[in-house]
Design goal:
3 domains; Helicase, Ruva Protein, domain 3; four-stranded mixed beta sheet; Ribosomal Protein S5, domain 2; alpha/beta; Rossmann fold; elongated
Length: 504
C-alpha cells in the first residue's frame, strides 16, 4: 500500500514542500529511505521503528521504501521523523488514509515516541501557508512559534499516540498558548557617554539613515561603548521585519523564546571568524553572522584583526543586501540588510596620533594599513576618529540620551519612508544611484562642491553616491527638503578620518 504525507525541508532559510511517500510490499524485511537524504534522515529508520514499537503499534516486517520527493533537493535534519512515522502507519493500515486531510507534519521523534522540537518551525509554518495547506502538526514545544503565522491551524502534539488518535477522528488537544510579546530588553544608553561630540553625531546619522560606520581610535577611547549603544537609537521592527528576523534565528537554532523578536539584532562576532561563519555557507549552507544581523547591526570590533578573506567576503552583502552561496550546483540566497559598525586601532600598538607615544615602525604601520582594503573602506559611509575624552569631560554629565536622539531618528526615518514610498528601499542607506537621482533634490551649489571633491581624486563613483546619501540623511535630521552645501560639506568631512567636529 502507498501513503503520501506532506512536510517541508529547509533550504537555506526558505521552506520547500516535500512529499513523504511510503510503499510497503511483500518481501524480505527492509526499510530504505531514498530521495537525497542526509545522514540524520537516514538515521530516522532506527528512530521511527523504535518510536512505532514503543508507542504500541506494529512495525511491518515487510519491504518498506520511503521516498522524499522531489528527489533533487537535499534533505537534512531530524524534522522528517514524524512524517515518516505517520506515512508508515497509514501505509500499513494502522491509520485512516484520509485522517490527515490537507495538513502537514513536522517534528523529530524520540525512541519512546515523544515529539521533540526542531529548528525552523516558523519557516515550516510559512511554507504550509504558502502551499495552501490548512493545518500543521508539530511538537507542542514549537506550537507557539508556528502559531505566529496566520491562516494556518497549528496543532501541538506531545506523542505519536496523540497523532494517531487525532487522525482517527479524536478531538485535537488544546490550542497552543498565544505567542507572547517579547520582553523589551534594557539597552545601553547614550547618557553613559562622556565627550565624543563627533562620534555621537556620526552615530545619530548612522541610525537615521542606516549608514555604515567605521570608528578609529586608541584602545580604551570608547569605540566599543559607542557601538553597543547604536541599537538604542534604531526604530522598532515592523511585524514583517520581526517575522523575517525571527525566522532566520529560528533556522539557526538561536530562537529560544516563543514570541517575535522585538529588538533589532546586534551581532558582534569574534575576529577569528571564518568567511562562511561571517556571510553564511558550510557543507550544509546555514546563515552567517551577516544574515543573523539582518535588519539590525553587525559590529566588527578590532576590524584590522579579522582575516582578510572574511572581510573581503563582506563586499557583496554590504553592497547588495544579500549574499549568494553556491553549493552542489545550487545557489542559496541569504538576506544581509544590516548596518555595519566597525572599530579599529590606528596602528598595531594602538596609540598612533594620540597623546601617548607610538612604538610602531613604518613597516608595521604600512602592514597595518594594508589589512583593510580600499574596496572595503569605500563601502563605508562614515569614517570618524574617536579621541580619548579629557578629564574634565569625564566629570561632566552626558551630552544627550538615547531617547532624545531616537526621537530625531524616528522623525528622519518617517521622512525617508514618505519620500521612498513605492520603492523597495526604506531608508537612505539602501538607495542606489537611480534612487538618489529620482528622490534626492540637491542644490546646484552642493553639486558643484561635490563635483570638485570628486575631481580632486578624493572620491570614487561609489563614494560620490554615498556622500549624497549621508548628506540626504543630515538634511532629514535638520528637516530640510533640499540637500544644500552645508549638508554635503558635513558628509564629506564625516568621510575623512581625523576630521574636526561637525556642527549639528
Amino acid at each position: 500500500m502507498l501513503a503520501r504525507v506532506p512536510t517541508f525541508a529547509i533550504d537555506g532559510i526558505d521552506p520547500l514542500p516535500v512529499w513523504v511517500e511510503v510503499d510497503i510490499r511483500p518481501g524480505l524485511p527492509a526499510f530504505r529511505i531514498v530521495g537525497l537524504a542526509g545522514a540524520a534522515v537516514r538515521e530516522a529508520r532506527e528512530r521511527v521503528q523504535a518510536a512505532i514499537l514503543n508507542s504500541g503499534f506494529e512495525f511491518p516486517a515487510r519491504r518498506i521504501v520511503a521516498n522524499l520527493a522531489p528527489a533533487n533537493i537535499p534533505k537534512v535534519g531530524p524534522g522528517f521523523d514524524a512524517a515518516l512515522a505517520v506515512a508508515l502507519l497509514i501505509a500499513s493500515g494502522q491509520c485512516p488514509p484520509d485522517g490527515l486531510g490537507d495538513r502537514a507534519v513536522f517534528g523529530e521523534l524520540s525512541l519512546g515516541g515523544e515529539l521533540r522540537p526542531c529548528r525552523g518551525v516558523l519557516a515550516i509554518a510559512e511554507g504550509a501557508r504558502d502551499a495552501g495547506l490548512s493545518g500543521l502538526l508539530v511538537p507542542r514545544e514549537c506550537a507557539a512559534e508556528a502559531a505566529l503565522v496566520d491562516e494556518v491551524e497549528v496543532v501541538g502534539l506531545e506523542h505519536l499516540k496523540q497523532v494517531v488518535a487525532l487522525l482517527k477522528g479524536g478531538p485535537p488537544p488544546a490550542s497552543p498558548n498565544p505567542p507572547r510579546e517579547a520582553d523589551d530588553e534594557e539597552m545601553p544608553d547614550l547618557a553613559d557617554v562622556r565627550g565624543h561630540e563627533l562620534p555621537l553625531r556620526a552615530l545619530e546619522i548612522a541610525a537615521a539613515g542606516g549608514h555604515n560606520l567605521l570608528m578609529e581610535g586608541a584602545p580604551g577611547s570608547g569605540k566599543t561603548m559607542l557601538a553597543r549603544r547604536l541599537p538604542s537609537l534604531l526604530p522598532p521592527l515592523t511585524r514583517d521585519e520581526a517575522l523575517e528576523v525571527t525566522r532566520i534565528h529560528s533556522v539557526a537554532g538561536l530562537q529560544p523564546r516563543d514570541g517575535l523578536l522585538a529588538a533589532r539584532p546586534f551581532r558582534a562576532p569574534h575576529h577569528t571568524i571564518s568567511p562562511s561563519g561571517l556571510v553564511g555557507g558550510g557543507s550544509v549552507p546555514a546563515p552567517g553572522e551577516a544574515s543573523l544581523a539582518h535588519h539590525g547591526v553587525l559590529f566588527l570590533d578590532e576590524l584590522s584583526e579579522f582575516p582578510r578573506p572574511s572581510l573581503e567576503a563582506l563586499r557583496q552583502p554590504i553592497e547588495d543586501g544579500h549574499v549568494s552561496v553556491v553549493r552542489g550546483q545550487r545557489a542559496l540566497r541569504f538576506p544581509t540588510r544590516f548596518t555595519l559598525v566597525a572599530a579599529t586601532n590606528p596602528c598595531p600598538c594602538g596609540f598612533a596620533g594620540s597623546d601617548r607615544p607610538c612604538g610602531c615602525g613604518e613597516l608595521e604601520l604600512a602592514r597595518h594599513r594594508r589589512r583593510l582594503s580600499g574596496p572595503l573602506l569605500d563601502r563605508l559611509d562614515l569614517l570618524v576618529t574617536v579621541a580619548r575624552p579629557s578629564a574634565a569631560e569625564l566629570g561632566r554629565p552626558g551630552r544627550t540620551t538615547s531617547s532624545a536622539v531616537r526621537e530625531r531618528v524616528l522623525a528622519a526615518r518617517e521622512r525617508q519612508r514618505h519620500r521612498l514610498r513605492g520603492t523597495p528601499v526604506h531608508c537612505n542607506g539602501q538607495m542606489d544611484a537611480s534612487h538618489i537621482r529620482e528622490h534626492v533634490p540637491v542644490s546646484a551649489q552642493a553639486r558643484r562642491a561635490l563635483a570638485q571633491a570628486y575631481e580632486a581624486g578624493g572620491l570614487s563613483a561609489r563614494g560620490y553616491d554615498r556622500v549624497l546619501r549621508v548628506a540626504c540623511t543630515i538634511a532629514d535630521l535638520a528637516e530640510r527638503p533640499v540637500v544644500d552645501l552645508d549638508e554635503v560639506l558635513q558628509a564629506l568631512a564625516l568621510r575623512q578620518q581625523g576630521s574636526e567636529p561637525v556642527p549639528a
